[in-house]
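Section 3.1: Structural characterization of target chains.
Under the original work plan, the team committed to producing a structural model for every single-chain target entering the pipeline before any wet-lab resources were allocated. The record below documents one such target. The sequence was received from the expression subgroup and is listed exactly as submitted; it comprises 172 residues.
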Amino acid sequence: TTNKKLLCEKMNQGKDILDFIEDLDIPVVAAINGICFGGGLEIALACHLRIASPKALFAFPETNHGLIPGLGGTYRLAQIMGKKAFELILNGNMLDAQLAKETELIDYLSDEKSSLEFAKDFLKSMIEDRPIEVIKSVMQAIKNSTRMSKEEALKSETELFCKLAVNVNAHQ
């Protein structure tokens, strides 16, 4: 039981790191160029957007070894893929980048050899010339949509809007 307790503590620390990434109030983009299996896929799932090159491969091979994803991968994958998560996790098979895009595991398929430049340009197009308060407000409002009731999320969105609007009007 000491080994189990220690292992669970380490896994919870790993989940805390991925929760930290997911909870950041700035967008985090995973740029995936090659093999993205197991824990690497769990890290990518914690990011807000995933961009992959055509040569990228994805899998949760844990079930082939008597395990399951243990860093929140089952939860995050189900949030993204719905019922398709059963198949991807239970069969342990690989998805190529095209199928990953079709199943919404990834958001964008770069047309370049490397997804990193594509990801940088994409992120720049979203945030360039936008005040950090706007970026943080968008991130918060979207997170609220999955963590609050509709009424609470809409109330918070209005509050975020009004806070920004007062600042915009004050600067004009």
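The chain has eight helices and six strands.
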